[in-house]
Specification:
CATH topology: TIM Barrel
CATH class: Alpha Beta
Number of strands: 13
Structural class: alpha/beta
Low-confidence stretches: 4-9, 101-114
Distance between the termini: 38 Å
Strand content: 15-25%
Strand order of the largest sheet: 3-4-5-8-9-10-11-12
Number of domains: 1
Mean pLDDT: 91
Radius of gyration: 19 Å
Largest sheet: 8 strands, parallel, barrel
Shape: globular
Helix content: 25-40%
Order of helices and strands: EEEHEHEEEHEHEHEHEHHEHE
Number of helices: 9
CATH superfamily: NADP-dependent oxidoreductase domain
CATH architecture: Alpha-Beta Barrel
Length: 350
Amino acid sequence: MNDTIKPHAAEMETTTLGGHRVSRIGLGTWAIGGMEWGAIPESQAIDTLLAAIDHGINFIDTAPIYGHGRSEELIGKALRQHGRREDFYLATKAGLDWGQACGEDSPASSGPHRAAIVANLSPARLLAELEHSLRRLHTDYIDLYQVHWPDPTVDVAETAEILLGFQRAGKVRTLGVSNFTVAQMERFRAIAPLASNQPPYNLFERAIDAEILPWCAQNHVAVIAYSSLCRSLLGGRLRADMRFDDIRRVDPKFQPPRYAQYLSAVDRLATLARERFGKSVAELAVRWVLDRPGISIALWGAKNPAQLDAALGVMGWHLDAEALTTIDQIIAESITDPIGPEYLTPATRS
């Protein structure tokens, strides 16, 4: 979607999704759900959500899997405290089941709190998840309802048919998918209108450049980039001696020798950001995502209001061709053993 409104100074850029004007930076609430990112106080989480609205960020992205419903519950409480449903554009998801065991050779069994996560798009699961999400979010409709991951045991067309029923019933306004291939999106779109796809995308993870991003642009499907800061790697706050006891403990990027390579790239990118643009490396990284043709929204994770302040530093400027070339050179020279986010892939149901 390319109908963005250019900001004045630090105003939030916006775009259109499902006929509604939304912020081009969306608040990602995986961390707010706790569990895989560590618990945070309820009051802090609600303050963060309300601060996002104050910053002009109305696109709030969540999922039942984030804290096993906790993220949605907190958003519902923030919405009630704020008092104006129309100020929130709520995007949630369906299709991940945390109640089943999976084999030790499964990607989902490789980390803390992920051992029971499987893709589940069975009709019964979808019907139950929608009602649970509506209840937790304290709303009678969801602005964007997304399939979180494909389920190899269920035909994409069957899933699309069920979500189309939700839309016709007025319980969801717009339909989207996440982590879908081009073939899967084409299958979905043959049955139901497809407004968006949400893939991982950042300076270090660019797999969608090959097929997914061009297809979405050609077919007017908005792209919502998650992991814009690559699970905090591009936040500019990590050190070589840090140890993690959250989801990053099982992320291959945070294991030696790769971790040192990625930190080296971040250090060099931070120098470029500071000397060339007077910006932080986080601001540079998210500006890079938003400047990519075909990208509509970049998700920004935050666990406290202060972490939202830099979001406005992404607005009002752009990367030039010389900077883009330098960025690519830095990454190619620093990271000799790159790896993607495949470890996040859920298990397949038996």
